[in-house]
Amino acid sequence: MSNSYVLVINSGSSSLKFAVIDSKNGEALVTGLGECFGLPEAVLGWKYQGKKTEEAIAAPDNHHQHAINRIVGLMESLGFTKDLVAVGHRIVHGGEKFTSTVRINDEVLTEIENLSDLAPLHNPAGAKGIRAAMQAFPSLPQFAVFDTAFHQTMPQKAFTGAIAHELYEKYGIRRYGFHGTSHYFVSREAAKMLNKSIDESNFITVHLGNGASVCAIRDGKSVDTSMGFTPLAGLMMGTRSGDLDPGIIEFLLKKGWTQEEVFNTLNKKSGFLGVSGLTSDARGILEAMESGHAGAKLAFEVFTYRVAKYIGSYLIPLDSLDAIIFTGGIGENSLDIRREILTNLKLLGFVEDVEGNEAARFGNAGIIGKSELLNAVAMVIPTNEEFVIAQQSVALL
Ligand code: ADP
């Protein structure tokens, strides 16, 4: 039987991640990253069979196209070309237009570009990746998988902001939510692990990476999520503030801050980095805490408290709860952060399973606690967004 590999591309404004995924089992055969696009030091690196290779991209401009052309050569030299059946693109914003994965044609590409108003950094970069891949792989079908699509099932009361309704009608201002592919994947995996039908499963999924979001899933569908109109909303993140009083923005502007300074601070100098004054990286926070760093301890406490508050509030849209699911770099690995979140949830009856919590790390899924009160478990499921992109692309072939 022939293989069914998908080239998964995640194109950013100055970088491009790629992977060749076996759509049957999710195995990543090659993974790679192009960085510093637009600069003279642009590079493309990849990992194949444990060996890392890095090459400079020796071209003055259009580093996306050059990187993808080089990937074509790589596919040929590794002998993957005959097994590649599709190219799957991760696209950040699908607005209200895209509620599931779609095959890309000219109309879809134009729609993605038209949505750039909602995701000015991400969608143009995604479109650039699509154009480059269409040129480099003219015979392969291409698919777009949207970060927002899974959340399009949210009811109007969950996605509507408490602001003038005309802002929604005029500009499309509403909650969209992101990380949808991850929330989708871990909820499906959890249902399998718990031997439940996904259509009858109620979960709170907690994706904690550099970006972080929580999602309430009722009968397998997203009914609320913490990121909003942009990925700045919701939880505290590596460098993003998450929710804050919008009055602070007016206050800082009146103090003479420029608009750019305010939003640069909220996006790039807040979260773990801002509160600790030290680092955006959770591992660095945990290490510094051990050596008594007060800012790191505060960052840990604010982060875990806020995650627990969101989890508590996401019981509201659910009738019952089967599991809280942790994922993302922090959710999959940090014993201490998960423990503190469960401790914060004691009123909901959650008790840590100490051995389970220690075992569910570094790629291992498992149960890390439970609540007799809610008849629910807390668990860890490593996410695999690339696998979803590969599977959904192949499903549409
Ligand atoms: P991204 O959102 O960029 O995909 P990841 O999901 O890879 O990010 O998560 C990155 C975060 O995971 C970082 O804060 C990192 O410190 C944290 N992380 C990774 N491994 C561990 C670990 N063993 N313990 C604690 N935190 C970890």
UniProtKB/TrEMBL annotation:
Entry annotated with the keyword Membrane: no
Binding-site residues for substrate, renumbered to this chain: R90
Cofactor mode of binding and number, as noted: Mg(2+). Can also accept Mn(2+).
Annotated InterPro entries: Ac/propionate_kinase, Aliphatic_acid_kin_short-chain, Aliphatic_acid_kinase_CS, ATPase_NBD
Location relative to the cell: Cytoplasm
Active site: D147 (proton donor/acceptor)
Main location: cytoplasm
Site feature (Transition state stabilizer) residues: H179, R240
Cofactor list: Mg(2+); Mn(2+)
Pathway stated in the Swiss-Prot or TrEMBL entry: Metabolic intermediate biosynthesis; acetyl-CoA biosynthesis; acetyl-CoA from acetate: step 1/2
Binding site for Mg(2+): N10, E385
Ligand binding (ATP): K17, H207, L208, G209, N210, G211, D281, A282, R283, G329, I330, G331, E332, N333
Reactions performed catalytically: acetate + ATP = acetyl phosphate + ADP
GO cellular component, one term: cytosol
Annotated GO biological process: acetate metabolic process; acetyl-CoA biosynthetic process
Entry annotated with the keyword Magnesium: yes
Keyword annotations of the record: ATP-binding, Cytoplasm, Kinase, Magnesium, Metal-binding, Nucleotide-binding, Transferase
GO molecular function, one term: acetate kinase activity
Its EC number(s): 2.7.2.1
Quaternary structure, from the entry: Homodimer.
Database matches in PANTHER family: ACETATE KINASE
Role summary: Catalyzes the formation of acetyl phosphate from acetate and ATP. Can also catalyze the reverse reaction.
Name recorded for this polypeptide: Acetate kinase
Organism: Vibrio ziniensis
